[in-house]
Amino acid sequence: MQAPVTTSTRPYLVRAMYDWCVDNNCTPFIVVAVDGSVRVPPEFVQNGEIVLNVSLGATSSLSLGNDYIEFKARFGGVARDICVPLGRVSAIYARENGQGMTFPVEATSAEEAVRSKPVIARSPVAATEPTPSLMGMPKADNNAKNNDPKPPTPPRPSLMRVK
Question: N or C: which terminal CB in the chain sees fewer CB atoms within 10 Å?
């Protein structure tokens, strides 16, 4: 007998962290890996990522759905519609204390096509299979589970208040 198909835990964990931030008077921020499926102002993207303030004071019409995070926000005084697929959220955390969760970024169909092409690597890169974890907690060594080499991730951009 096959196990029943279940939904992703990511939207539930994101909503739980969001609620925890709000309940503790903290400002929830999300880190988004930007690609063609993400609708954010491109001029605020740094190193392929954008950090967004998703507090009620910084957004309007916030919807934390099972597939997308959608809201309206002001960037440089200009109102914008933001739409982020949950698979592109790499972290949610509280601005005040940095507590939160990280997630592996799910590949989009364009990224999967690029990854499926053979690549000749000059030197092997140790790869780990990322799993949701508490920020600041050490991750288990999963080198044996994943043979796809991944480039090192660039440093995270500095935080800035987005309204």
Answer: N
Q: Which residues contact 109 (CB under 8 A, 6 or more apart)?
A: none
- CA 39 to chain CA centroid, Å, is 13
Length of the chain: 163
Q: Contacts from 51-54 at CB under 8 Å and sequence distance 24+? A: 51/157, 51/159, 51/160, 51/162, 52/82, 52/84, 52/162, 53/27, 53/28, 53/29, 53/95, 53/161, 53/162, 53/163, 54/18, 54/28, 54/29, 54/30
Per-residue pLDDT of the chain (163 residues; tens, 9 = 90+): 787 888 889 999 999 999 999 999 999 999 999 999 999 999 999 999 999 999 999 999 999 999 999 999 999 899 999 999 999 999 999 999 999 999 999 886 555 444 444 443 333 333 333 344 444 444 444 444 445 455 555 555 555 566 5
The CATH code for residues 10-106 is 2.30.30.220
